[in-house]
Automatic annotation (TrEMBL):
Alphabetical list of SUPFAM superfamilies matching this protein: CBS-domain pair
PANTHER family: CBS DOMAIN-CONTAINING PROTEIN CBSX2, CHLOROPLASTIC (PTHR48108), CBS DOMAIN-CONTAINING PROTEIN DDB_G0289609 (PTHR48108:SF26)
InterPro entries in alphabetical order: CBS_dom, CBS_dom_sf, CBS_domain-containing
Protein name: CBS domain-containing protein
Pfam families listed in its UniProt record: CBS (PF00571)
Domain CBS: 7-70, 83-140
Organism: Shewanella inventionis
Length: 140
């Protein structure tokens, strides 16, 4: 099996020019925990924003500035300041045996799947592996 067999195609992405508030709302309304961050102009992958990283940033802001300033701070914090830029990427044909070991060794929740031009094709999450496990366990 390979990445293309389990990935979630066409994931929700967010522009690198968006605010932390935009990301927060997108994660809430779309019920996602991982957002590939793409260039507004080229559409290329620039980084990843995870729910864990977003929550940690929001809590830091809350503790530092208080509830009253939180929304303003979120609105004016560029996602580019918060996202992880050192992101391991996958190709469609990457074997799952290698990917699963990488997830385990690095305690990751997701990895973006990109084409040869660094455009996001999909995302592989720990939930995708759980779904695969369920499928395999239910096979006769």
């Amino acid at each position: 099996m390979k990445v293309s067999d389990i990935m979630t195609p066409n994931p929700f992405c967010i522009s690198h020019e968006a605010s932390l508030k935009d990301a927060h709302l997108l994660m809430q309304t779309r019920n996602v925990r991982h957002l590939p961050v793409i260039s507004e102009t080229s559409g290329e992958l620039m980084g990843m924003l995870t729910h864990k990283k977003m929550i940690a940033t929001v809590l830091t802001m809350l503790n530092k500035y208080g509830q009253g300033a939180l929304e303003r701070r979120e609105r004016y914090t560029p996602i580019a300041q918060v996202m992880d830029t050192q992101v391991q990427k996958l190709g469609l044909d990457e074997p799952l045996t290698i990917v699963v070991q990488y997830f385990i060794d690095n305690k990751l929740g997701c990895l973006p799947v990109v084409d040869e031009h660094n455009k996001v094709l999909g995302i592989v999450t720990s939930s995708d592996f759980v779904k695969l496990c369920q499928r395999l366990l239910l096979q006769p």
